[in-house]
Specification:
Blueprint (H helix, E strand, L loop, with lengths): L10 H15 L7 E3 L13 E9 L11 H4 L2 E8 L4 E8 L7 E4 L4 E10 L6 E3 L4 E3 L7 E10 L4 E9 L2 E7 L9 E8 L3 E3 L9 E8 L7 E5 L5 E14 L4 E15 L3 E6 L10 E2 L2 E6 L6 E4 L1
Parallel strand pairs: 2-10, 11-18, 17-19
Antiparallel strand pairs: 1-7, 2-5, 3-4, 3-6, 6-9, 7-8, 8-13, 9-10, 11-15, 12-14, 12-16, 16-17, 18-20, 20-21
Amino acid sequence: MLTKNTIGMKSSKLGNVIAFMMVTAAMSSCEKIVPSDYEGEESGAEHNVVLRVSQFETIPFSNTTRGELGQVCTRLCFDIYDENGAKVKYINQKQGDESFGEASLSLPEGDYYLVVLAHSSTKNPSFATKEMKVTASGTLSDMFWACESLHIAEDNVNKSLTLRRIVSMVRFIADDGLPEEANELLVKYTGSKGTFSGITGYGTTKASQSVIVDVEPSDENYDFYMVPRMDNDTIRNVNIISRYNDGSSATNFTETTIESIPVRRNAVTVCKGSLFGGKSGTKGTSSVSIVIDDSWDSGIEFYF
């Protein structure tokens, strides 16, 4: 199982990868990003590596400590990097595939690093070709991750994997009514979102972000996921706009600003208060109580 400090790698090899990433960081702005769109296992080759997702180290809302694969995610991504950090192979799977949860492949002898993601987004993340950096595509879902070393020699490798949740959920519960014509919330903030290190599973950006949350009049809460940059993180200048969007233009109804919201990996931050009282353009500051829920992990409370 991975740990926070070693994530299952030998420290010397991890140092080599980090050094390599520092050299290639200057090139990242023009780095080609490869979408992970290959589905299924390799064919026409004798497999010497079998990777199997065996459990999720998590406490989901049902309060069970282990989740069944199909109940937790609909997509799996297995990405292999060589010891210099260059991506050499990947396999993607979808729920319903015969081998969902188990990947078989062939690798030459040598040392490699494995990054595995489990998620339920409509698209797979993109992986940098020469950096272990992952960027989520589309709306971010609940996401689980593992990073481990692989040593390939004469004997076949059979590896069971435990995946850890790397996201935080932000949940808004309004004590006032959503405007009747609103069909989405636009949430803007400064902080991390869906780009993260494949080595650590932590977010790597601190920038202006935008998230669209589809809403219905019957909704009691409004949620979105993000990948924190550390176990305990903060998103700032959070602006929540209710609006109607017909696909070509949007009409704003209300606008509320929250100065900062604490977030934590594997935890739900619940924000309760008046979210729809401010007219669009006024940027009224809402009196909102914030609690980090313990439905996933042990909780703390935060008020401002």
